[in-house]
Amino acid sequence: MLPWSPTIIDQCFHSDTLRVAYTNMSPTLDRIICFYVHFNQQVLHDIVGLPLMRLLMAALGTCYAIMAFEGSRKGFKTTTLLIAFPILGLLANMIGISLMFPAIWIPLCLYSYKQKEPKGDDLSLSMPEAYGILLGIVVGYGVPSAIIASPWITNDSRLEQDLVCLWQVLPVIIVPLFGVFENVFKKMGSPIDQITQPAVRERLHLVEGKDALERCFLFLGVLNMVIYYGSYVVTVHQGIHIWDSFLLLLNAPGSLPAGLSFEDLGKLLSTRMVLIDYISLSISFVLWATFNSGIIAGLSVFIATPIIGPAAALSFYSYYRESKMQHTIIKAD
């Protein structure tokens, strides 16, 4: 627990200095939300914490997309716990994505593949499903995250607090958007639907879904690269020495100057926790690639991580994994 956490918790439960009414359903629930909101606000208001938060939000969104894709595969929807990706996404916001992803989701994913031993079209997603999930996450998660981390939201405003509170439960409440956008793409149709031979049509739909999913991973990779380099350029333009700042944060609180106010200490230590979360999550991406595709894939993600960013490295690895996995199944059929 952060050194200042007990003070924040005490303020949320026994003080009028912080906003504590969010749901008006349960005082205890509202106080817990108060803590999460105040913690995230501390990071968003810090000059180093803000770009770090953008990167972590992007990485979390990428993880959620991958979990949603895996849980929506034809053979996994009703036979594995991967379908519980909304709950896992919510849990990631509660306990930290760097803990949930390696400790819960990676073992669950590996176990599901081992238990299921997918064959035929078990791994398939239709084109509307793939694009529906991607668009649902971009609109339902990416846009609110971008708004929260934008300069247009006034610090400590009620709007900021409401958005941060809402952001905590986005992994659950955006799920209906997947079905909405999936139906949109279904209504748009596909040239393959005109083919009269059922076997040929089914096989081409399988290839179409594979291509759509690969495009989704490529899109996520490029988007994350833009966020990664954009955050770097903005941070450097502000005159911040990134490496020195990271060393200061990692060595905190011992390396912090004396006489810091409670607010400044909160910003620094909250940002430190986000930095550790981001580094830990990056390591878990390497582990997932290694467990799935071997040491070469893991090393590739490891090398690519500082160059293009952890989330982009994960996205491009997922593209490679999907291409190899689906090609093997289609060839076998």
TrEMBL record:
The chain crosses the membrane at residues 52-69, 81-110, 131-154, 166-185, 216-234, 240-262, 274-291, 297-320. Keywords: Membrane, Transmembrane, Transmembrane helix. This is Uncharacterized protein.
